[in-house]
Amino acid sequence: MSTLNPDHVLKREFSLWSSFAFAFAFISPIVALYGIFALAIGAAGGTFWFGFFVVFAGQLLLAFVFAQLVSRWPLEGSIYQWSRRLMGNGFGWFAGWAYAWTLVIAMATVALGAAGFLANIVGIEAPTGTQKAWFAFVILLAGTALNLVGRKALKLFMTASIVAEVIGSIGLGTWLLLFHRNQPLSVLTDGVGDGLGNGYFALSGPFLVAVAFIGFTFVGFESAGAIAEEVHEPRRNLPRAVIFSLSFIAIVVAYSSLAIILAIPDLQAVTSAQVADPVYFTLTEAFGSGIARPVEILFVIGFLASFLALQTSGSRMIWAFARDNALPAPRMLARLSAGQKQPVNAILVTTVIGAALFLLSNLSPDVYLLMVNFTAGGFFLAFLFPLIGALVVQVRGRWTPGPYSLGRWSLPVTAVAVVWALFEFLNISWPRAVNTSRYLDWSVWIAVVALGVVGAAIFWSVRGAIVSASVIEAEEAADEAVDA
To answer: Could you tell me the pTM of the whole model?
Structure first.
């Protein structure tokens, strides 16, 4: 008789392409570029473009380490599962706690970001905070409905979004480079604006600020592991999905960004913040106001795809916690639907939390800034848990690789990856005086402390009931055998 618990088995309906599409949509090129462009170019001028290569190099090291981990433990919950097996229940629990909240808060910020474009599409040019919250709520409900329909609908939308984003990003970028060059290549090294002059391309303060912003564009590749138990042949497919999704996103974002920088009509106005939205400004100057509506529709598609990927990842994190009895009300949260085997209750929890965050953001714009700031730092904080765990285990000589392995390069790559992730977390969370309210400069640390205190109380209440990792591994191994 099989030892597999049918209550804990998700359907394996995702392929290599699906897992790649999922990670690609997580931080879509459109969301990534639009989210950081104005901030990064305002901080470092055109020289910020070189920050893409710095961040990509660092993130690629993380991708190599995560590819090894997901090959060794292809389990739903990714960062939580890896950290738990590397350093124990408590270490893994707080890794998952940090990652789950980062995902859910990022989901809410993406919905709020899409709300502005959706409002413009329906004719509201300057939506109020309340109107944005309502539009975000509509996006939340639509995304939740699509997530509940099943994996086939999710796969179809992810594929369609990739096609739309690649055509939009690469197509518009190529057209700008060919027919709308307004800036010389020297703007990438000379800089423009107050304090930006020759020789500015260096690891100076402003460039580090730009690198901090860019760090948000190259996360999400690890999310392929969040759906590991829904992917066919995960030990073979997921490492490739993790590495390839990061590389492809980097190419698309860097190419599109280069095209926009060189097409900006007035770079001085952009870097001095006289232009609030340099991407939209450049596109309308190049293509006319008629491009506005198609571009906004493209943005909404990208934001919605990102929202879906974030909600899926967040709900799977909650489900993985609940399956291990690592949260209150575990039986309810771990329940799967009868037909689709979807973690319906976990998905609905993300919906409720998202709605609450919309309400809070409407009460005060500072809440939205807190959410945005924590999201960028939260990813790197969560990344540090499995990276440090992997480094400790390898130094102790206790690492057993899976099918994907870096061999003798594993230890040095992991060590440098830890240094990079720690540097980027500190770079993002460093309380620079960049916000109107001083406490917002400390927003990452405020959120870490607040969530840490709440998390400690919850972990203390459930720590004795957490299911052994060996039980979950046995279930997953049996399920993989059935899939094979």
So the answer is: 0.89
Residue 1 counted as domain residue: no
Residue 223's identity, in one-letter code, is: S
4 in any annotated domain: no
What is the DSSP-derived secondary structure letter of residue 468? P
Greater confidence (306 vs 387) lies with 387
Residues in the chain: 484
Is-contact 374 54, C-beta < 8 A?
A: no
pLDDT tier, 14 (very low <50, low <70, confident <90, very high otherwise): confident
**What domain range includes position 402?**
13-476
3-state secondary structure of 27: coil
**Are the C-beta atoms of 320 and 312 separated by less than 8 Å?**
no
Instruction: Give the DSSP per-residue string, 57-92.
Output: HHHHHHHHHHHHHHHH---TTTHHHHHHHHH-HHHH
Burial of 247 (0-12, 13-18, 19+ CB in 10 A): middle
User: Mean pLDDT throughout 117-137?
Assistant: 84
* Residue 354 near residue 141 (C-beta atoms within 8 A): no
Provide the CB-side half-sphere exposure for 117 (13 A, CA).
25
Q: Tokens at residue 247, please?
A: 């590389």
What is the tens place of the pLDDT at every residue in 146-179?
888 878 888 888 888 888 878 778 888 899 999 9
Nearest to 320 by CA among 185, 446, 225: 225
Q: Are residues 80 and 93 in contact, defined by beta-carbon separation less than 8 angstroms?
A: yes
In degrees, rounded to 5, the angle at the alpha carbon of residue 183 between the alpha carbons of residues 182 and 185 is 140
pLDDT band, very low/low/confident/very high, at 3 (cuts 50, 70, 90): very low
Helix (H, G, I), strand (E, B) or coil at 442: coil
What is the distance between the alpha carbons of residues 165 and 24, in angstroms, rounded to a whole number? 10
> CB neighbours (10 Å) of residue 321?
25
Asked if the structure places residue 246 within a domain, the reply is yes
Among all chains, which residue has been given the structure tokens 């197509």? 171
CA angle 69, 74, 78 (to 5 degrees): 70
**What average pLDDT does the segment 382-403 reach?**
95
**Beta-carbon contacts of residue 240 (< 8 Å; ≥ 6 apart):** 16, 20, 67
SS3 231: strand
Find out whether 368 and 112 touch, Cβ atoms under 8 Å. yes
Three-class secondary structure of residue 393 per DSSP: helix
14 forms bridges with which residues in the sheet? 231
- Total domain count, the chain: 1
User: In this structure, what CATH number is given to the domain that contains residue 368?
Assistant: 1.20.1740.10
Q: Is 484 contained in some domain?
A: no
